[in-house]
């Protein structure tokens, strides 16, 4: 069970990043709405304890994603 103090969230945080052209704002609305439910946060935090990916692997995945996005953007600007 996750400690109750870890279930709190700071209202000073902004929401998830909605980068232009990615059409992820709809998913972000759902995720942010669910995050306000204590039961969702508790289950998410509990499940994340058993996550199999290492921090290094997650960083590499993020970098790969960013490079792919940069490549896509540079290709679309050339097509103009």
Describe this structure in words.
- This protein has about 80 residues and is mainly alpha-helical.
- It folds into two domains: about 1-50, no CATH class; about 55-80.
- The protein has helices spanning about 25-35, 40-50, 55-80.
- It is flat and about 45 Å long.
- The protein starts with about 25 loop residues before the first helix and ends with a helix.
- The mean pLDDT is about 75.
Question: Features of this protein?
Answer:
80 residues, mainly alpha, single chain, 3 helices
Number of helices: 3
The largest sheet, given as strand count, sense and whether it forms a barrel, is:
none
Extended strand count: 0
How would you name the oligomeric state of the polypeptide chains in this document? single chain
The tally of domains stands at: 2
Structural class per helix/strand content?
A: mainly alpha
Helix content percent band: 55-70%
Give the end-to-end Cα distance, rounded to a whole number of Å: 53 Å
Q: Name the shape in a single word.
A: flat
